Amino acid sequence: MSCAIIPRPFLPKYLCGYRIITWASYVAEQRERQLEYRLSRNLPHSLQDHMNTLPASFRDSDIARRIFEAHIQEAMINEPRAPPIEIFDNDIGDEVTPRWEFHYTNEMWYGESVPPPDIKRLESCKCIGKCDPKSGKCACARRQLKWVQRYIDADIIPSTWPGSPFVYDSKGVLQRLECPIFECNRFCDCDDDCPNRVVQNGRKWPVHIVRTEHKGWGVSAGNKKIPKGSYLGIYAGELLTEQEGEERGRYYDLYGRTYLFSIDFHHLKFDMEDPEDWENLYVVDAYHAGNFSRFLNHSCDPNCKIFACYIDDADVDKPLLAVFTTRDVEPWEELCFSYYGDIDEKREEIEKAREGGQELVRGHAVYAQCRCEASNCIGRLFS
Ligand SMILES: C[S@@+](CC[C@H](N)C(=O)[O-])C[C@H]1O[C@@H](n2cnc3c(N)ncnc32)[C@H](O)[C@@H]1O
C-alpha cells in the first residue's frame, strides 16, 4: 500500500498568509468534491424532435446525413485524435441516416437511483512521467496485477505471462483479452501519455456507420486494417438500475430491437459461493443516448469484445464498457461483438439443451433469427 493515496483529512498550509497549493493538496481537495456527471433526465432531445417534424423527403436527403455527421463530430470534443465518423452511403436500403431517436454522445448518463462516481476511494499512483509497471512501485500496476491474479487463480488465464502487469503494451494495444482493465485515473501523478491511459485518451481508429443487408445499421472499419487489441470506443448510453433496464427491456423485446447491455462481467461474481446467486445491479441502455457503438451488431464469430474498464469510479459494479478488437480487422470489414459474451459457452449451453430435447426459442420479436452469416452461427439472437 505504500504508493496508494489513502484519503485522510486534509489541512491546508499557509505561507505569509497565502495558501500553499501543491498537486497533493489539490488532489486531496478534489477527492472531497463530487465529480460532475450527467443525469439521464437531462438528455438533450431538441435536435431529434426538430428533425422528426421535418418531411421524410428532407430526412432522407444528403443534407440530413451531413447534419447527423456534424452531430457526431460535436460529441467528439474529448477525442482530439479520433478520425471523423461517416454515415457511409453503401446503396443498401432506403435510409440515409439512422433514425433520429437518440442523442449522440460518448458519455455515460446516470439514471435515477444510480450512485454518482465514487472518486473518494480511487487508488492512484505516484509515478513520475510514464508509469513503469515493472518497478513494483506503481499502485495502478499492483491493482491490475491483483485482478489478473484472480483470473489466474480461477484457471481462466495461464499463470505464465511474459508481459507487464498492465493489460496494455507500451503502444496502448490490449494484450490481455480476458481481464477487466484498471487504468490510471485523474488523481494519479503520471503523465497523460502514460501507457496505462488508453480508453480515457479516446478512439484513434476510423470507423463508419453503414447499412447492412439484413441487420439494419451496423459499424464497419475504415480504410485501414485495425490490429488486434485496438481500442474503438466506449459503449456509451444511460447507466440504469437493473430494475429500470428490465422494464425498458420488456418494450424493446416486443419492438424487436434492443440496445441494453447488462453489466454482468465474470469478475463481479468472483466472491460469490455460487455465481448463480449473483444479481445484476446495472445495465447500459444505448437506445436514447449512445455513440456509433450502439450500431455494433452481433456475430457468432466476432472481431470485437466489450471489456470492463475502470478509470474514475472506484465502484467495481460500474465499469465503463470499452470496445476493443479481438483479432486483426480488414479495411471495411463489419465490426461485431457477441451479444452472449462468451459465444463458445453459449454454443455449449445450446448443444446441451438440444441433446436434452429442449429448444431455447422464445416468443418476442427480439428473439430473431441471427443473420451474422458466420459458418458457426448458433442460429438465434438473445435465445
Ligand atoms: C444494438 S442494435 C444493433 C444496431 C441495429 N442493427 C440498428 O439498426 O440500430 C441490436 C439490434 O440489431 C439487430 N441485430 C444485431 N445483430 C444481428 C444479427 N446478427 N442478426 C440479426 N439482427 C441483428 C437486432 O434487431 C437487434 O435487436
Account of the protein in words:
The protein has 383 residues and is an alpha/beta fold. It has a domain of 225 residues: Beta-clip-like, CATH 2.170.270.10. It is 20% helix and 17% strand. It has a five-stranded mixed β-sheet. The longest helix has 15 residues. It is globular. It starts with 12 loop residues before the first strand and ends in a 28-residue tail after the last helix. Bound molecules: S-adenosylmethionine. S-adenosylmethionine binds next to β9 and β15.
Sequence-ordered SSE layout with sheet pairings:
Elements: E1 13-15, E2 18-20, H1 23-32, E3 38-39, H2 46-53, H3 56-59, H4 62-75, E4 86-87, E5 103-104, E6 108-110, H5 139-153, E7 181-182, E8 207-211, E9 217-221, E10 231-234, E11 237-241, H6 242-255, E12 260-262, E13 282-285, E14 289-290, E15 297-298, E16 304-310, E17 320-325, E18 334-337, H7 343-355
Parallel strand pairs: 3-6, 4-8, 5-14, 6-11, 7-16, 15-18
Antiparallel strand pairs: 1-2, 8-9, 9-18, 10-17, 11-13, 12-13, 16-17
This protein binds S-adenosylmethionine (SAM).
The site of S-adenosylmethionine has 18 residues, from strand 9 and strand 15.
Structural features:
383 residues; alpha/beta; Beta-clip-like; five-stranded mixed beta sheet; 7 helices; globular; binds S-adenosylmethionine
Task: Give the structure's gist in a few sentences.
With 383 residues, the chain is α/β, with parallel strands linked by helices. Helix content is 20%, strand content 17%.
Report the helical percentage: 10-25%
Uncertain runs: 1-6
Bound molecules: S-adenosylmethionine
Which whole number gives the mean pLDDT?
91
**Order of strands, widest sheet:** 3-6-11-13-12
* Contiguous helical run count: 7
Distance between the termini: 45 Å
CATH fold label of the domain at 39-116 and 199-345: Beta-clip-like
The biggest sheet, with number of strands, parallel, antiparallel or mixed sense and barrel status, is: 5 strands, mixed
- Find the count of extended strands (DSSP E, 2+ residues): 18
Q: Tell me the series of helices and strands, N- to C-terminal.
A: EEHEHHHEEEHEEEEEHEEEEEEEH
Cα-atom Rg, whole angstroms?
A: 22 Å
Principal-axis shape equals globular
Tell me, what is the CATH class of the domain at 39-116 and 199-345? Mainly Beta
Computed structural class: alpha/beta
| CATH architecture assignment of the domain at 39-116 and 199-345 | Beta Complex
CATH level-four homologous superfamily name of the domain at 39-116 and 199-345:
SET domain
Our estimate of the beta-strand percent is: 15-25%
